[in-house]
Every structure is written in structure tokens, then in C-alpha cells.
Amino acid sequence: DSPSPAEASSEAEWPFIILFQIMTCIFENRLNDVPKYRAILDSVLFEMNGYPVVPLYAASGNKICAKNQCTTVFQAFLILTEMLEKQLVFPHDLDYRRQFQDSRIEANKRTPIIQIALLAESTAFQALLSTYGIITQ
After folding, report:
1. How many Å apart are CA 103 and CA 115, to the nearest integer?
2. Rounded to whole angstroms, how far apart are CA atoms 57 and 114?
3. Does pLDDT of 92 surpass 50?
4. 112 band by pLDDT with thresholds 50, 70 and 90
5. Alpha-carbon distances of 70 from 45, 95, 100, rounded to whole Å
6. Cα Dmax for the chain
7. Tens digits of per-residue pLDDT, 16-49?
8. Residue 133 phi, psi (nearest 5)
9. Average pLDDT for 77-101
10. Is 99:116 a contact under the CB 8 Å cutoff?
11. If DSSP codes are grouped into helix, strand and coil, which group holds residue 5?
């Protein structure tokens, strides 16, 4: 029997570590290892409002259960990991200390750039944001 989330005495963040493993493989150009970690991650993701969610696990003694909760940090790293996997961003785009230089790009010729598009949930919200100079779609 798994403990209910209310009975759990501590939280386990191991799915978060799997996200770091995937990102490390990409940063270190060990792309053959990514599917192994991705399979582990995919086996624990659950769906909330049509989107994949990284679970927070709870533990009590030797019992473990998934808490169907969404943490902002976990989700941010899931999105970033997926963007790296799909090559929407690259390690050099995120590596402000230049630890993982891409050998195809000379350090002085490329400045990391990340572009973010904001989507407003309604035209009224879009109009409100535009009054503050925030452009949305």
C-alpha cells in the first residue's frame, strides 16, 4: 500500500534529477544516452489539463506514492529539456559561462540569444499588457 499524500512525511525529487541527466547528456554531447533517461522520465509523467507534468513523489517509511501536483520549477525544467531535445535552443544558448562551447561556433562570433513569445489568453488581457509595452500574440 502506498501512503496517501497527506500521510507522506517527506518529498522525493528524483524525477527532477532525471531532467538534469537528460540536460547533462545534451550538454556533454552524449546524445545516445538521452533516450534511456527520456524513457524513465516518460514512465512517470502524468497529464494535467492536456500537458505532461513532472510528478512530485512523497515517501513515508518504505512506501512511495506520486503526488499529482505541479511544481513550477519542475515544469520549467521539463519545458527547457524538451526545447533542448527538439533543438529549439542549444547548449551554447544557455551557457553564459561558456563551459560547453560548441566547436562549430567560434566564441567571438556568436552571442547567446533566447527569444520568448508571449501568448495572451484573451484580447482584453493582450490589450492590458500592451499598455505596459508588453507585446503578445
Report:
1. 23
2. 32
3. yes
4. low
5. 11, 27, 31
6. 58
7. 889 999 999 998 889 999 999 999 999 888 888 8
8. 80, 15
9. 82
10. no
11. coil
Per-residue buried b or exposed e for 85-106, using 16+ beta carbons within 10 Å of the residue's own CB: beeeebbbbbeeeeeeeeeeee
Q: Residue 56 carries which DSSP code?
A: E
Distance CA 70, CA 52 (A): 10
More confident residue, 73 or 20: 20
- Provide the pLDDT confidence category of residue 5 given band limits of 50, 70 and 90: very low
**Residue whose C-alpha is closest to residue 100's, from 20, 25, 35:** 25
CA angle 23, 112, 84 (to 5 degrees): 25
d(CA 87, CA 89): 5
Q: What share of the chain is helix, strand, coil (3-state, %, to 5)?
A: 40, 15, 45
- pTM (predicted TM-score): 0.61
